[in-house]
Design goal:
By secondary structure, the chain is α+β, with helices and mostly antiparallel strands. It is 42% helix and 22% strand.
């Protein structure tokens, strides 16, 4: 049972880490090479696309989605989708997709004359599942080595750790004050019952 317990704990925290990694904002330093629009009909991967609830008809599954093609500072290619998040999860309340696409088009550059951009986004890129991170904002930077300090992530993770620690401390105190005494009493009662049965068995012989 000890191994099962640790497997469950490990699985739980792995899911929490994956959820946070997908949801929390990240920053990439990249050079925008092109922008385009493509018709998308989400299928089994619909969980990784935004919901059509920000000024669009929710009855239509297919829709046009903006994309931003880039080349990262490590020379790898990265493609971002550009969708409104609206009022749904994650709570970025993004409604300026068209404006962001116009900014991306204006920031396009070539390898000969690069314009480096800090791209704030959330989500993952997976070619097999055809999923793309969602660009949230763009900010021109001086070069490919520009450093972005994720203050929001630091604050949110600090608050999350503090909350989990507070819950753990209160649960431990509650267990020591209420649950452990009951379990100890039950154990003593079982010991007494076992001793009584043992004595009764000896007398009957």
């Amino acid at each position: 049972m000890r191994y099962v317990k640790w497997v469950v704990i490990l699985l739980f925290w792995t899911l929490v880490a994956a959820f946070l990694h997908y949801t929390l904002p990240q920053h990439d330093i990249a050079r925008i090479t092109d922008t385009y629009e493509k018709r998308i009909d989400p299928g089994s991967n619909h969980w990784f696309w935004s919901k059509a609830d920000s000024g669009e008809s929710t009855a239509v599954t297919g829709r046009d989605v903006f994309f931003i093609q880039t080349r990262l500072n490590n020379d790898k290619v990265m493609v971002y989708r550009n969708e409104d998040t609206g009022w749904s999860w994650p709570p970025y309340f993004k409604f300026d997709t068209s404006n962001l696409q116009a900014e991306a088009a204006d920031l396009r550059s070539t390898a000969a004359a690069p314009q480096w951009v800090a791209i704030k986004h959330y989500g993952w890129r997976n070619e097999f599942l055809s999923i793309y991170p969602n660009a949230i904002s763009l900010k021109p930077v001086d070069g490919p080595d520009a450093r972005i300090i994720p203050w929001m992530n630091i604050i949110l993770l600090t608050l999350l750790v503090a909350f989990c620690w507070a819950v753990y401390v209160r649960w431990r105190r509650f267990r020591e004050a209420r649950i452990d005494p009951v379990l100890d009493e039950m154990g003593d009662n079982l010991d007494d019952a076992g001793g009584w049965l043992k004595g009764l068995f000896k007398r009957s012989r």
